[in-house]
Amino acid sequence: MLRDPVALVPEPLGVAHEVDRITECLRRRAALDDRCQVENRDGQHTANIATYSREVVDERERREAQLYVVDKLADAGIVLTPEEREGIEVVDFGLSRLVETGLQLVVYVNTDRYCAKELVLRPGQTCPEHRHPPFEGTPGKEETFRCRSGIVYLYVEGEPSREPACRPPPGTYTVGREIELRPGMQHTIPPGTLHWFQAGPEGAVVSEFSSTSRDELDEFTDGNVRRT
Amino acid sequence: MLRDPVALVPEPLGVAHEVDRITECLRRRAALDDRCQVENRDGQHTANIATYSREVVDERERREAQLYVVDKLADAGIVLTPEEREGIEVVDFGLSRLVETGLQLVVYVNTDRYCAKELVLRPGQTCPEHRHPPFEGTPGKEETFRCRSGIVYLYVEGEPSREPACRPPPGTYTVGREIELRPGMQHTIPPGTLHWFQAGPEGAVVSEFSSTSRDELDEFTDGNVRRT
């Protein structure tokens, strides 16, 4: 099932560094990892990370992503309950290129009036272009991104920046007005506005405050992307 | 204008410790404090903190409270912009007993759909009992408290706890179902529900996620309390 990992990586995107980091992360979190009921053949996780040939995130990949989130949030001073750690969402948008195009998130609360999440991104990881459409008589999700750690580059509708900090990964991207968010900086995105975002070289933690979240309704510009 | 500070302090509430802490805080933040355009007679700020005789929070007291917030948030890994630091709200609920009954807050965003704040409490400081009434066709503010650092004891409607951790300060308090929130723990308060809260001995930082906030509409159980 696994093909040659080197040949299948389209761009490096700091993958080697990422593997080193995750290996270290796994070592330090052995106790948590022990609960992961997956195959653990020698070197398997390294191959998985560098391989973009599968159709979904497997259990090992999901677990590694969750461990990364736990570490990044702890570094940012953010405490999760054990249940929240187990429930960290790992989204590969149906592309099976998680390290390149993906998102990890913790949903604190999502009522029929408001929602709060932490978004966690790996170095250079991109959340693909999408918008939040109207639903159930509302204008659709309005959201505020507040950077907690690292840097996140947000791209929205408007005059494209002439020297953007990021290149989008393969796929369809149409908006390019760059907003750089460093810790303590925030930006509010109106409903229906196309946007995508990419973390800087250190990864990023972003608090999202919003109206009610209905992720399954998100409309992606690239027809191959889906919110699974 | 200033009366004997000792005679006017109804309960100690760790005031001496608080003054030590703030003195240290002031020393470390001399640069920020320099911008404070108030009188700085020797020992003045100590007298102010222990004095409950004035009708409003004065500039020095407000500044000290803001410095406390900056430190507490920094300790919790939360970064503020310089503008946010200048805009930290200090609320004494019209009682002029800020260290005992008061609240400090940073409002990140408050749209007509959602709101996000950080609430910061001094050791043992209490936010008095209130509820959020309906307004403009909405059921009123629904809010989720998530503890970030320290401990906060939240009291809501329901069977009163038999051995509550806190005593309310002087005033009218009618609800006593205790919910202890430690870092990573959260609780959602439905609209219209009476509630009050008090920080543990280390103070507390609490993230508040909610529907739209209209603080001026808050209804307090104690007729002497007002949201100024």
Can you put this structure into words, describing what you see?
Two copies of one chain form a homodimer. Chain A is α+β, with helices and mostly antiparallel strands and 228 residues long. In chain A, 22% of the residues lie in helices and 29% in strands. Chain A contains six helices and nine strands, in the order ααααααβββββββββ. In chain A, strands 1, 2, 3, 4, 5, 6, 7, 8 and 9 form a nine-stranded antiparallel β-sheet that branches. In chain A, a hairpin with a 4-residue loop joins β2 and β3 (115-121). Chains A and B meet through β5 and β8 of A and β5 and β8 of B.
Task: Give a brief description.
With 228 residues, chain A is an alpha+beta fold.
- Order of SSEs of chain A: HHHHHHEEEEEEEEE
| Oligomeric state as shown | homodimer
Q: How much of the sequence of chain A is in beta strands?
A: 25-35%
Q: What's the overall average pLDDT of chain A, rounded? A: 83
- What does the main sheet of chain A amount to? 9 strands, antiparallel
Specify the overall morphology of chain A. globular
Which descriptors apply to this entry?
alpha+beta; disordered N terminus; 228 residues; homodimer; 6 helices
